[in-house]
Each structure stands twice: as structure tokens, then as C-alpha cells.
């Protein structure tokens, strides 16, 4: 007898004549290519030479080599690890591993990537059915059989809407219309959309979990999992969300794109992580429940009956892509998923390959380096395993989770930008694959600011390869594929959640140019009232020197010319010794280093690729005054946070990416016990294109005045204002 519930590599016979052309159009784009699960790992070596290309500027700074002896701070070449990893690791460690785990020795440097093929049939969506006891099958039936024309469930509202070609054309050509709104916790919001003007969303003062249309197990597990963030201030009827989570989830649950640039690893980072994990898991459980429910309906229908009502899948299975910077972040996400799926202590979920996962993504407490003095935000960002090259597939089926699932059998993919870059590959490479990104419905990019310190090109490369038509069919049953995927309209349904610690033009560009959600976008646009200059504790005159650039593309050359013509001559005199030049861009740093060598200036330099011995030597020369200038890159400061002693004159070649770096660098001057603070100077170069960075340093009011005036601005900070 014919098993109607099993998916076949070929599509079922279509009954509707008008849809045949769509299938043929899609099939015409497919070419047969050998399907390979093994992914070639690229060996990306970093060079300090100026000739390296932009895509080679990876963030390997946190893993720089160095065997030589260093100073008291230089002995630690790996950032400190925080004890916060304990909870996630202990939970995973308490459970015994299954048989597949013991055969694998976890190692970060393996050539062949491990994928779990053992549990393929158990986690197949096509061959499984909804368990009766879960009750989810009934919920799906209730939605489909309801007399109401539109379900109230935001998931069904979003995925079931059928766009017309006119609307798609409008989104491709017309500009977005925007409106403003102010919310109690998030502050100033900008709502934008291309289609008809949407109703401005209002902040919910109170949220009942039962009204959020969460998938059944999440209603009971979320309050317990989120309990750690709740205070006694929360009202009894709103005890499951913090004020920040409530407003963020209110936006997420409408399937709008969201940009939140105020993520802080110290304060709200874990709150936000739990909120987007809840949303992503809710989406996957609903999507899978719909497929399993339709499997049962297809099994029970009469032979020979063809129906087009079961379009519930994409062209490939992965639905959620989560981009995070370090393995520790992936560890915490998986731990959150497990906690959300476990209804009670007695009903533990089955997690495949958990022992291997703990070994590869956890950190060994015994390897913790000696505690050196670092800022709290550094400790929070670089906690646990900070390897930035990883990717892992996660499959979820009812009360089971499968880690290391092959991408085409995964529901969720958790990866770093570098991990994605090495599997996507570049044009012309034989081993490259990005078909698994074709049907991503929720994209989460967390801690986007860190990718500016790693390699932003990897993020752009990923955005260019997401939601494209696949080159191979990968055994999909076309009779189950949604029309939106067949029409290549996936990008108009994809929700993008972007979280960052700062506003930056490059991050804004991704949100504005690569997010096409038909529902619209929401961006938090709060302006800083007081800048980080107020945290400078040393008495120091700050001179902000404005340079005039004709366009944003010419500002790089204009800044260099302005520096060598007008700024550098003032510091060539031997009296202006102990001058540190802070350079945010590595490429500007290389340009300045080459110029200083050409001019035979007395200088030394430190960048993210400098070995420990070189760093120690440069710091010693600068402190003793043997070298007049020190070129110092922002990425080195981001990854190491060493205190540079001996600074008397400070030049910010460009405003720092992180505003608090400004006060940190200025406050390094107090580390010099020379009693010559009266001669300290600080010079900052800026242009009109640095408005966001400038506002974060001096505040919005001063920024407005400085951008209107074309004169240099002198500020004197006494440590009290």
C-alpha cells in the first residue's frame, strides 16, 4: 500500500493546472549537484602585512599566538573566563550521554566535522506524527477548522498571508513610510513599512502568557525559566516578563523586524537572550506541529484523493538561524532551549550528543588564567569558551532534541559569522553550500557590535546568501512547499531580530538594506543625553578638530591628509613625547605605520596581530620615552584591555566605536605618576559623518552645536562634569 505520509524526492502529482508553471519555473532553476554533508574548514591565517585583503581581517585577535615572556599583564594571552558558564554546563553535565557520544573525542581542530546521522529517522518531520498526549494536534485542527476567516495566532497570520505580485513590486521599488512612537521601557521607536500604513503598535502594560499564543509546553515552562530575572516589583498578574522583555516580545510576536541597539552584556544581555530564545522556539514548535498534524491528515485521507491544503514547509527544513559571536553564547542558547522544553524535573527531554556538545562548547574551569584586573564589561563579554569558529544544527521534535543534526535535517542553526563564511564559501570554490539558508523564517543576529571587531564582511556575505532559491531539490516534497517559497518570496516573510550594544552606520545599513519583511520594521532610536566624556576622571583639555570631507567615501583620505598636514606637525617636537595615537581601523593603522616608517619618525606600534613579546617591548619603550609615538589599534584594546602607562598626549585619529573606550583611554593617563598633568593634551578628529559616535562621546546637545559650527571645539573636563 502507498504511504501517503512519507515525503518523496519527487513532488506529488499536481492537481491544479495553474500551479504547474510555478513548479516548472522552480525546477528549471535547480541543477543536480552531489550533496555532501562534510564541510571544508578553511585555514584562515592572519598577516600583519599591509597587503592583506579586507576579508582576511578576521577577529583572531583573541587567539593570537605568542610564546615569549610578557610583563605582569602579558602573561595572560587568553581573555579571562567568567563563572557565569557554570549553570549552563552543570545542567548539561548532570545528564548522562547516550551511546553515540562516547565514541567521539571532542576536539576543536578536527578536519571532519561531526554530524549526527544516527538519529535521522527519529527526527524526520515527514515520517512522524503528532503525539496525542501533547494536545498540539487538536490545537492545530481547531485553528484550521475554525469558522473565523483569520486565526488569532500571530504565527499563522504571518505565514498564511498570501502576498500579491503588486505588493511585492511595491516593496521592491517604493520607499518606506515611517512613524514615531514612545514606549515606557524601550523609549523612542521608529516604525517603518512599505505597504499600506500599519497601525502603530502600542506597548502592553500587562501581558498574560495565555494570550500570547505560546506553544503549549512554553506557557508553563517560561515563567519558571525566566524567574531569575524577575524582581518583587513585578505585579502578580505580570510575573513572567521583565518590563524590557515584555516590550521586546510584544514586537517579536507580531513578526516585525526589530533593531535594539542598547544590549548590555552586564545588565540586560541574558534577559534579551531568553526573550528571543522563547520566540524562536515558539516558532519552531508551531511550524513542526503543523507539519506533524498534516502528516496525520494525509495518512487518514482516502487513497487517490489529492489536496493542496497541506502546504506547510519551506524548500529546506532550517527555519531559524541564530548568529552569535562565541561558543559560550551557543552553549547558553541550547541550555535555555532545554529548560524551556522540560515541563518538570520528572519529564526530562531526550538530548542527543549532549556530552560531545558540553566538551566542544563548554570551558574547563581548571584552565582559567590568573585573575588580572579587567573591566566588568570585558569579563561579561569574554566569559567561557570564546572560540569564534563554529556552527551546529539543532533538530527539535516534540520532547526530543538532537544536537549536531545535519543542516538539512535541522530546525535551528546556531553559528558564528566565521562559521557561516567557511561553509558558504566564495564564488568559484568547489565545496560550498548555502541552500540550507533558502527557507530561513527567523534570523537572530545577537551582539552585532562584536562582529565589527571580528570581520563585518562575513555578516554581509551571509546576508547576500540568505533566502535564495536552492541549487538542488534536497529531496523536498513540492506538494508540501508553501507558495511563498516557490515564488522566491521568502525574504519578504523573514523576520530579522538585530541586537547590538551601539548604533553604527554599518549595522544600520544591514537593517535598512537587507530586511524586507512585509509586516515592517521597528528600530529603537534613543539619543544619548550625556556622553562618555563625563566619565573621564583626569583633568584634561579635549580639543575636537573638525575636518571637512566632500563625501563619506572621501573621508578616509581626507582624514589622513588632515592628520599629516595639520595635526602631526604639532607633535613632532621632542617636547610632545609620550604621544599615543588611537586608531579604530586596522587599515588606517597600516597606512599610518607605513607613513611613520617612511618619515623615519621615532615610534612603536601595537595591533591585534602583535605577538606578546612585541607588545611588552612596545609598552616598555613607550613608558621610558625611548619611543615618542605609539600607534595603538582599537581591536587590540577590545581583546586585551591592557593599561598603557606613560601617556601624556593623546590623539584619537577617529572617534572610538565603543563610546566608553574614550573615557577608558583618557583615564589611562592617571596610571602615570609623573605629576605633569598640566601638560596633558587630548586631540580628537571628527567629521560630520561621525554624528552618532560623536553624540555617544559628548552628548546630543554638544553634538548639534559642534556639527553646526565649523570651528574647533575645546572642552575641559575636571573629573566632576
Automatic annotation (TrEMBL):
Family matches, as Pfam families:
Utp25_C (PF06862), UTP25_NTPase-like (PF22916)
The record's subcellular location field reads: Nucleus, Nucleolus
Kindly report the protein's main subcellular placement as a broad class. Answer: nucleus
Q: Where is this region: Disordered?
A: 1-157
Keywords annotated in UniProt: Developmental protein, Nucleus, Phosphoprotein
User: Compositional bias of type Acidic residues: which residue ranges?
Assistant: 36-83
Instruction: Cite the UTP25 NTP hydrolase-like domain residue spans from the record.
Output: 255-522
One GO biological process from the UniProt record?
A: maturation of SSU-rRNA from tricistronic rRNA transcript (SSU-rRNA, 5.8S rRNA, LSU-rRNA)
The keyword Nucleus is annotated on this UniProt entry: yes
Listed Low complexity bias regions:
84-96
Every UTP25 C-terminal domain range: 532-716
Among the GO molecular function terms of this UniProt record, one is:
U3 snoRNA binding
Record's function text: Component of the ribosomal small subunit processome for the biogenesis of ribosomes, functions in pre-ribosomal RNA (pre-rRNA) processing. Essential for embryonic development in part through the regulation of p53 pathway. Controls the expansion growth of digestive organs and liver. Also involved in the sympathetic neuronal development. Mediates, with CAPN3, the proteasome-independent degradation of p53/TP53.
The name of this protein is: U3 small nucleolar RNA-associated protein 25 homolog
Q: Which organism is it from?
A: Leptosomus discolor
Upper lineage: Eukaryota, Metazoa, Chordata, Craniata, Vertebrata
Amino acid at each position: 500500500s502507498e504511504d501517503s505520509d512519507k515525503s518523496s524526492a519527487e513532488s506529488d502529482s499536481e492537481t491544479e493546472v495553474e500551479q504547474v508553471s510555478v513548479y516548472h519555473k522552480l525546477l528549471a532553476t535547480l541543477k543536480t549537484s552531489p550533496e555532501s554533508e562534510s564541510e571544508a574548514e578553511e585555514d584562515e591565517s592572519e598577516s600583519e602585512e599591509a597587503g592583506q585583503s579586507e576579508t582576511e581581517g578576521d577577529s583572531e585577535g583573541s587567539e593570537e599566538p605568542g610564546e615569549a615572556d610578557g610583563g605582569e599583564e602579558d602573561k595572560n594571552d587568553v581573555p579571562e573566563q567568567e563563572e557565569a558558564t557554570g549553570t549552563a554546563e552543570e545542567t548539561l553535565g548532570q545528564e548522562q550521554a547516550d551511546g553515540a557520544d562516547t565514541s567521539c573525542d571532542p576536539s576543536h581542530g578536527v578536519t571532519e566535522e561531526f554530524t549526527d546521522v544516527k538519529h535521522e529517522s527519529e527526527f524526520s518531520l515527514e515520517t512522524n506524527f503528532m503525539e496525542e498526549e501533547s494536545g498540539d494536534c487538536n490545537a492545530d485542527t481547531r485553528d484550521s477548522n475554525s469558522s473565523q476567516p483569520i486565526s488569532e495566532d500571530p504565527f499563522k497570520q504571518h505565514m498564511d498571508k498570501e502576498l500579491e505580485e503588486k505588493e511585492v513590486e511595491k516593496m521592491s521599488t517604493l520607499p518606506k513610510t515611517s512613524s514615531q512612537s514612545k514606549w515606557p521601557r524601550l523609549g523612542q521607536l521608529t516604525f517603518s513599512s512599505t505597504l499600506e500604513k500599519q497601525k502603530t503598535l502600542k506597548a502592553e502594560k500587562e501581558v498574560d502568557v495565555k494570550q500570547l499564543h505560546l506553544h503549549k509546553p512554553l506557557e508553563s515552562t517560561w515563567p519558571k525559566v525566566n524567574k531569575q530575572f524577575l524582581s518583587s516589583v513585578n505585579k502578580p498578574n505580570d510575573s513572567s516578563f521583565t518590563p524590557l522583555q515584555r516590550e521586546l516580545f510584544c514586537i517579536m510576536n507580531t513578526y516585525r523586524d526589530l533593531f535594539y541597539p542598547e544590549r548590555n552584556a552586564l545588565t540586560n544581555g541574558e534577559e534579551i537572550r531568553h526573550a528571543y530564545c522563547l520566540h524562536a522556539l515558539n516558532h519552531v514548535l508551531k511550524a513542526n506541529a503543523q507539519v506533524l498534524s498534516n502528516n496525520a491528515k494525509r495518512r487518514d485521507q482516502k487513497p487517490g484523493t489529492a489536496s493542496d491544503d497541506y502546504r506547510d514547509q519551506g524548500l529546506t527544513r532550517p527555519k531559524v538561524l541564530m548568529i552569535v559571536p562565541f561558543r559560550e553564547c551557543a552553549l547558553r542558547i541550547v541550555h535555555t532551549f532545554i529548560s524551556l522544553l522540560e515541563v518538570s524535573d520528572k519529564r526530562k527531554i531526550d538530548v542527543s550528543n549532549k556530552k560531545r556538545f558540553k566538551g566542544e562548547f563548554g570551558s574547563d574551569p581548571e584552565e582559567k588564567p590568573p585573575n588580572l584586573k579587567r573591566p566588568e564589561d570585558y569579563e561579561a563579554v569574554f566569559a567561557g569558551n570564546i572560540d569564534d569558529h563554529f556552527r551546529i544544527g539543532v533538530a527539535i521534535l516534540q520532547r526530543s532534541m538532537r544536537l549536531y543534526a545535519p543542516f538539512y535535517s535541522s530546525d535551528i542553526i546556531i553559528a558564528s559569522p566565521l562559521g557561516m563564511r567557511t561553509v558558504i564559501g566564495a564564488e568559484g570554490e568547489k565545496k560550498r553550500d548555502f541552500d540550507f539558508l533558502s527557507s530561513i523564517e527567523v534570523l537572530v543576529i545577537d551582539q552585532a557590535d562584536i562582529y565589527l571587531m571580528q570581520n563585518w564582511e562575513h555578516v554581509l556575505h551571509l546576508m547576500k546568501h540568505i533566502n535564495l532559491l536552492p541549487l538542488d531539490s534536497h529531496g523536498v516534497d513540492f506538494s508540501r512547499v508553501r507558495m511563498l517559497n516557490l515564488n522566491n518570496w521568502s525574504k519578504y516573510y523573514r523576520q530579522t531580530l538585530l541586537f547590538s550594544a551601539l548604533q553604527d552606520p554599518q549595522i544600520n545599513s544591514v537593517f535598512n538594506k537587507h530586511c524586507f519583511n512585509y509586516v515592517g520594521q521597528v528600530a529603537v532610536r534613543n539619543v544619548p543625553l550625556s556622553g562618555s566624556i563625563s566619565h573621564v576622571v583626569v583633568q584634561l583639555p579635549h580639543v575636537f578638530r573638525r575636518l571637512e570631507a566632500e563625501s563619506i567615501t572621501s573621508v578616509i583620505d581626507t582624514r589622513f591628509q588632515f592628520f599629516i598636514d595639520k595635526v602631526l606637525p604639532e607633535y613632532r617636537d621632542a617636547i610632545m613625547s609620550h604621544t599615543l595615537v588611537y586608531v579604530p581601523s586596522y587599515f588606517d593603522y597600516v597606512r599610518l605605520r607605513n607613513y611613520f616608517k617612511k618619515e623615519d619618525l621615532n615610534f612603536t606600534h601595537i595591533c591585534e596581530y602583535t605577538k606578546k613579546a612585541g607588545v611588552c617591548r612596545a609598552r616598555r619603550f613607550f613608558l621610558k620615552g625611548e619611543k615618542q609615538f605609539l600607534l595603538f589599534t582599537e581591536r587590540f584594546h577590545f581583546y586585551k584591555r591592557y593599561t598603557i602607562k606613560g601617556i601624556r598626549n593623546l590623539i584619537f585619529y577617529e572617534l572610538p566605536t565603543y563610546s566608553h573606550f574614550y573615557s577608558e583611554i583618557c583615564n589611562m593617563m592617571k596610571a602615570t605618576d609623573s605629576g605633569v598633568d598640566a601638560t596633558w593634551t587630548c586631540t580628537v578628529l571628527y567629521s560630520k559623518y561621525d554624528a552618532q559616535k560623536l553624540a555617544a562621546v559628548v552628548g546630543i546637545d554638544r553634538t548639534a552645536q559642534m556639527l553646526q559650527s565649523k570651528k574647533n571645539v575645546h572642552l575641559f573636563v575636571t573629573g566632576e562634569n
